[in-house]
Amino acid sequence: MMRPAPAIVWIGTVLLLVPAAGCDDMTRQNKQNPYASRETAPADIPSGVVQYGQPGDTSRPIPPVTIALLERGHTEYHVFCAPCHAETGNGRGMIVQRGFPAPPPLATADLMSAPPQRLYDVVTGGWGVMYGFAQRIAPDDRWAVVAYVRALQRSQHMMLADLTPEQRAAP
Ligand code: HEC
Fold it and tell me: Which residues form the Cytochrome c domain (predicted)?
C-alpha cells in the first residue's frame, strides 16, 4: 500500500503551481493585437517621430532660408557631417583621417550646381559608401543642412563682385 505523500511535497507542489497560474494573466492583459481594429492599430505616425524618408521624396517643401534655418543647419552639420566632411567641407574630417574613404570637397563645381533636392536625397538615403541619415535627421532639419552646405560652398567661392561697396570698404 502507498504511503500518503508527506505534507512538504504537497506544499512544494502548490508553490510551484502558483506562479504558473499567475502567467495566465498575460493572455488577458491590455496589449496591441496584430490584426486589431483601425482605432487601435499603430497606423498613424505619432507627432514628433522622425519618418524614414525615401530618396526622391518631395513631400517636404523646401523651407524659406532664414538665419534660424542656417543656424539649425550648422548645428546638424557639425554633429552629423563634419566628422567626415570637416567643418569647412574639404572632406578631411577626423573619421577620414582615421581611415574612412575621403568624400569629395563639398564646394566642387559639380556639387555647387547640383539642385538642392539632390543634396537632400544624399542626406536622406546616403551616397556610395556614405550611409543615409533618414533615421537620424528629421526632414526639416535635412533641409537646414542643405541650406548650410550651400552657405559653406558660397563662402569658399566669394567674389569681390559679390560684395557691396560698403562691405568692400570694411576693414
Ligand atoms: C562617415 C562619413 C560621412 C559622413 C558622416 C557624411 N558623409 Fe557625405 N560623403 C561621405 C563619402 C565617403 C562620400 C563619397 C561617397 C562615394 O563617392 O562613394 C560622401 C558624399 C557626399 C556628397 C556628394 C554626393 C554626390 O552627389 O556626389 C554630399 C553632398 C554629402 N556627402 C553630404 C553630406 C552631408 C550633408 C552629411 C551630413 C548630414 C554627410 N555627407 C555625412 C562620407 C560621409
Answer: 68-153
The SS3 assignment for 127 reads strand
Ligand 1: does its nearest atom lie under 6 Å from the Cβ of 128?
yes
Q: Give residue-wise pLDDT tens across range 53-98.
A: 555 666 677 889 999 999 999 999 999 999 999 999 999 999 999 9
Measure the CA–CA gap between 152 and 154, rounded to whole angstroms: 5
Which pTM does this prediction carry?
Answer: 0.72
CA separation for the pair 119, 143 (Å, rounded): 9
Please tell me if the CB atom of residue 72 comes closer than 6 angstroms to any atom of ligand 1. Answer: no
Q: Taking the C-alpha atoms of 154, 156, 158 and 159 in order, what is their torsion angle to the nearest 10 degrees?
A: -140
Domains of the chain and CATH, by start = 67-158 (1.10.760.10)
pLDDT value at position 58? 67
**CB of 145 shorter than 6 A to ligand 1:** yes
